[in-house]
Amino acid sequence: MRPYVPYQNNYNKDHGTNFVSFAPVHIEPLAIYSQKIKDLKDLPNGAKVAIPSDPTNSARALLLLQSAGLVTLKDPTGLTNTPFDITSNPKNIQITELEAAQIPRSIQDLDAAVINAKKLTLHMQIFFLLTLVMKINQLSKN
């Protein structure tokens, strides 16, 4: 089991277990990346968007998509959300769950992707740096 505390607490509650963490764990940030668009408002209807397939990062990715206004989730703060928990998807984005390491390799076939920063290669980190800076600048203006 991954020692991500909120997931661990939900797991304990759902399965009657008492797993505990013995050391803090750094959680890599997730971000939305694209080689096709520069602003999320330009994401086309029916866009193909990949998210990690593992339960913890999948739920975190869905929360990120929700915070970007792309979807609405049944439980807006839930750390166990799956794509089946999407209650509103105004742009009808096609969410595909992929193994996290495959997402950066697949980005050219996608309109956008939620990627764990740890999974980016140095080349991709440099390539996406400008996109990330633009997104941060956009959010700071709001």
Can you tell me about this structure?
- There is one protein chain.
- The chain is of the alpha/beta class.
- The protein is built from four helices and six strands.
- The chain is globular and about 45 Å long.
Largest β sheet strand count, sense and barrel closure: 4 strands, mixed
Q: How many whole angstroms does the radius of gyration measure? A: 16 Å
3D shape: globular
Strand content: 15-25%
- Secondary structure tally: strands: 6
Portion in helices: 25-40%
Report low-confidence residues grouped into runs of 5 or more.
none
Average predicted confidence as pLDDT = 83
**What's the tally of helices?**
4
Class of secondary structure makeup? alpha/beta
> Order of helices and strands, N to C?
HEEHEEEHEH
* Lateral arrangement of strands in the main beta sheet: 1-6-2-5
Descriptive terms for the model:
alpha/beta, 142 residues, two-stranded antiparallel sheet
What's a quick, concise take on this entry?
Helix content is 34%, strand content 17%. It is of the alpha/beta class and 142 residues long.
Topology at a glance:
Layout lengths: L4 H11 L14 E4 L14 E5 L2 H13 L4 E2 L12 E3 L5 E5 L4 H4 L5 E5 L5 H20 L1
